[in-house]
Write the structure tokens for this entry.
Amino acid sequence: MDVEFRIRRFDGEKSYWQTFNIPVKRGMTVLEGLYYIKENLDGSLTFRASCRMAICGSCAVKINGKPRLACETQILEIGNSLEVEPLDNFKVIKDLVTDFEGFFKKHEAVKPYLIRKDDNYEEPVELIQSPKELHAYYDFTLCVKCGACYSVCPAAATRDDYLGPAAITAAYRFNADSRDEGEKIRLALVCGDNGVWRCHFAAECSEVCPKQIDPAKAVQKIRFKSAIETIKSIFR
Amino acid sequence: MKVQHDIVIVGAGLAGMRAVIAAAEKSKKLSIALISKTYPIRCHSVCAEGGTAAVMREGDSFDLHAWDTVKGSDFLADQDAVEFFVREMPKEILRLDNWGCPWSRTEDGLIAQRAFGGHSFNRTIFAADRTGFHEVHTLYERMLMYPNVIRYDEYFLTSLVIEDGKIKGLTAIELKTGDLILFEAKAVILATGGAGRLYGFTTYSHTVTGDGMAVAYRAGVPLKDMEFFQFHPTGLVPSGILMTEACRGEGGYLRNKDGERFMERYAPEKMELAPRDVVARAMWKEILEGRGIESEHGYYIALDLTHLGEEKINERLPLIRDAAIKFVGIDPVEEPIPVRPVAHYTMGGVHTNANCESPVKGLYAAGEAGCVSIHGANRLGSNSTAECLVFGRAAGEKAAEYVLNADYSHVSNEVYKAEESRIFDEILGKSGDENPYQLKKELNETMDKNLWIFRIEDELKEAVKKIKELKERFNNVEIVDKTKGFNTDLVYTFEVGYMLDLAEVVAIGALNRTESRGAHYRLDYPKRDDENWLKHTLAYYTPDGPRFEYIPVTITKWEPVERKY
């Protein structure tokens, strides 16, 4: 059957809608639809894609109003007419391609790596971590940095410098890792003016996350921890 | 525009990022640039699923890992490199542990290991079935700690600048602006991955188009052993998405249409856990002989996990379950997964020694882009992510040592101007009546048909002819998108050009090699021929097609014997 793809395009100056009709078989994904257009109808259509198995995070776009990974979205589950747009809250570079530089900078800003005093590059030793300790943070390691959460975040929409759900989730992921010793450093980074207290608790991030990570929970956990630290410091 | 860095590393997968960290650890004064055509965590290494091999526990030994690797390679691996590789591996696992990799654990909190094909000890370390994903993120995050690393995300490599046998730099397009940038460098490390998108039915990401190999080849650097392409037994039908070997490592079965575990007829001892070349051939034979299972997408083999139970599948193979449900609507807890052998790994690559040094001074290659060779004619599962770690590190360290005593050599403005004109006038500005997408489609069809698991002279000759025709037609390609910024149409066209050059090397190399060894199986020469062919292939670029030379294999401890599983 034929499916109508309406795509919001941008050529660097103006934004416009263009419609393509493409033949669709059962099992075909939105990403395959975009490739069909590029390979057969219009080679200038611009989008990002790589792994096509929902692990690289390249192809998040807005499909009928909701951010999703194009590669794991079945066309026929959406219907016989699709609207594909670039993610909100990101500057559009061309067609469906948006600028992720700031997004990655925010991730970097929370020191998303293990901090240990005994870091020894030459002679590393095996660290013990029980399955229970692993499970305490493991789900939060699954973030593919696709930007879906950031694109629906009302706090990010109103403030450019808000760290956003993905970066805060990364901070929490390391804070919750039994091998890490950098919690205080990271708390200071994510509890400032552009951090967790800006969150509106709309929890839309958790709703759209293609990996079901629940960034809102990470924000909440960090707020709680930060509050406790503040109280502790009063009595210190 | 021109920039200068001591070391420029191209490719931000496991090998590239490991090289960055190694070089940065060597010296805080070095200026290290990392160029990648995607954001680093979008690299293909994230698709590695099953695990990474290393000797960690009592009962295993370096010699055993080395022997498994050499036997798996059908004796084409260089044994000195293999011995170095297995000894360096355990430390890499521990480093990743110290940098935050969420390794799966035993009840005691130790790093866990699982069984994998061709390994005679359960030595595959893993992070559920997302090992590559977690390794990539761990290296990326660790890399953020080094202030002397400068990233160039979304830059596309177009050429290497080599003069008098020495690397001087490279050119790359900044995708966002479309500007060509000249990178002057004392050393360059190619870590651009394999060439898997030569094939249509493949596990590879769309971005894996052999850029580094092709650019090096065009600049006169030889490619080694390119005729050896690995077919992974279990690609999801019809997309080709990888269904990890860990499915079988955790106890999964392969069954034909009669429900038979046919591997007992091909590898009675190792069964489903024989090396990939053996299993892929067995599956293809089952299909050819009419014992495949029919579907609207062709015949397939059943990957049966139903006896493993939901709990084990959720813990050990969560990505597999999720992917099977999302992409084909099948829950592996309930029913078998439809799979078929699929193009998966490029054993060949840029010719280097065990220090990752190419014949060009200051030019290194690591990971799948390079060919040391530790995989020979057939790589064992979980040795590729391992290779990226060990040889990424080796390349980074060697390059760092080299540049401390080397000077920049100036690249003339003419070189830059010539490259700019080649890209924007000759390629982007050209008119013609061919489109790159059609050429790529025909290339994929040829590779899938004529350079698949079973090869034979007539079909190989036909493939060579077809590839030459495609190369001719490529000269007549017109790019639709004439704009400068983020021109993926231009990038795609470049990639197709790269792949056509590489395909020619693969096809002629396969035609020349009149024996069967590892993944290269000739129906007309079904036996391994050590007398004539225990040697590496080197392909050199000439305008009329590749010129071939052969060099000996390094043997230290293990003389070739018959390979049985």
